[in-house]
Amino acid sequence: MSSAAAASAASDPIAPFSTRVGWIGTGVMGRSMCGHLIRAGYTVTVFNRTVSKAQPLLDMGARLADSPRSLAALSDVVFSIVGYPSDVRSVLLDPSSGALASLRPGGVVVDMTTSDPSLAEEISAAASAIGCHAVDAPVSGGDGGARNATLAIFAGGDPATVRRLEPLLSVMGKVNYMGSPGKGQFAKLGNQITIASTMVGLVEGMVFANKAGLDIGSFVSAISTGSAGSKSLDSQGKRILQRDFEARFYVNHFVKDLGICLKESQRMGLALPGLALAQQLYLSLKAHGEGNLGIQALILALERLNNVKLENAGSSNLEFKECAA
């Protein structure tokens, strides 16, 4: 494709009848997010290392690719949402099997994994070198936000490219443009820092109330309508009361996110003691073999630390809401 043709392709409007979508990563969130695009009428090709996890999307009409490279050859826009930065590097940048090895000029890669800002910048530079575009667009809202298409999407990259992607991104949630390549990742890391410290405050308050002899259900319900109320309290409070530690967002992935936050904070010369404490508490869960539980399992770390277990949970009037990690 000539440079003129590439420029034309990059400015073509995105629409179901003309835009081919590739989707890499069909886990708990990716499967729901991709499903919205299929229901919106887009032609979608998917890749996942465990094919069975992609089966619901294949049943909806998606095609299956045997590698990110073969997927990109059939796509105009390639999305990825995988586990770790090393996975992002593999599926997008690997010279033999990665998506950028076959994406045609004018194509776009959109990485929605929470990852390193520097990796987002590297992907953007690699895409630009072959006449393509890259956007980092990590999300917040957990599996509930993915299912309900209410995710907060933090987008970094060329503003015109992000605007052009709006028909795709808006199918999954609300797009927030954060700035140049890597800035979407920085915004998501700030989001995770906020959640981490909020979770520490939540479980400490519950352990304190329990020790004071309060009915924990009544306590959580009471503070939810005051200044201590938060989405974390709404989404996690009732789960903790019910001892429901099923993962909507894995401890293992949160440890990864907070590790990136600490690394970036150190690079910027920032001291964030709340972040460091939260990371240590979540690492203790992982050390106890609880990495596949949800982030609400932080209460287990506080219970162990104080040799207590929440009692008198009672009944809470909290409305059950989805995780916003």
Mean pLDDT: 92
Please tally the helical runs, counting DSSP H or I stretches of 4 or more residues. Answer: 15
The spatial strand order of the largest sheet comes to 3-2-1-4-5-6
Cα radius of gyration in angstroms: 21 Å
Looking at the structure, the CATH topology of the largest domain is Rossmann fold
Helical fraction: 40-55%
CATH-assigned homologous superfamily of the largest domain? NAD(P)-binding Rossmann-like Domain
N→C terminal distance: 41 Å
Question: Strand percentage, roughly?
Answer: 5-15%
Which CATH architecture of the largest domain?
A: 3-Layer(aba) Sandwich
Number of strands: 9
Q: What is the number of domains?
A: 2
| Morphology | elongated
Domain 3-hydroxyisobutyrate dehydrogenase-like NAD-binding: 182-299
InterPro entries: 6-PGluconate_DH-like_C_sf (IPR008927), 6PGD_dom2 (IPR013328), 6PGDH_NADP-bd (IPR006115), HIBADH-like_NADP-bd (IPR029154), HIBADH-related (IPR015815), NAD(P)-bd_dom_sf (IPR036291)
Domain 6-phosphogluconate dehydrogenase NADP-binding: 20-179
Active site: 188
Characterize the structure shown.
There is one protein chain. By secondary structure, this protein is an alpha/beta fold. The chain folds into two domains: 3-180, 3-Layer(aba) Sandwich (Rossmann fold), CATH 3.40.50.720; 187-306, N-(1-d-carboxylethyl)-l-norvaline Dehydrogenase, domain 2. It is built from 15 helices and nine strands. The strands form two sheets. A six-stranded parallel sheet has the order 3-2-1-4-5-6, with helices on both faces. Strand 5 (108-111), helix 6 and strand 6 form a beta-alpha-beta unit. Helix 10 (183-211) packs across helix 13, helix 10 (183-211) crosses helix 14 (273-287) and helix 10 (183-211) packs across helix 15 (298-306). The radius of gyration is 21 Å and the shape is elongated. It starts with a helix and ends in a 19-residue tail after the last helix. Residues 1-8 and 314-324 have low confidence and may be disordered. Pfam families: NAD_binding_11, NAD_binding_2. GO terms for molecular function: NAD binding; NADP binding; oxidoreductase activity, acting on the CH-OH group of donors, NAD or NADP as acceptor. This is 3-hydroxyisobutyrate dehydrogenase-like 1, mitochondrial.
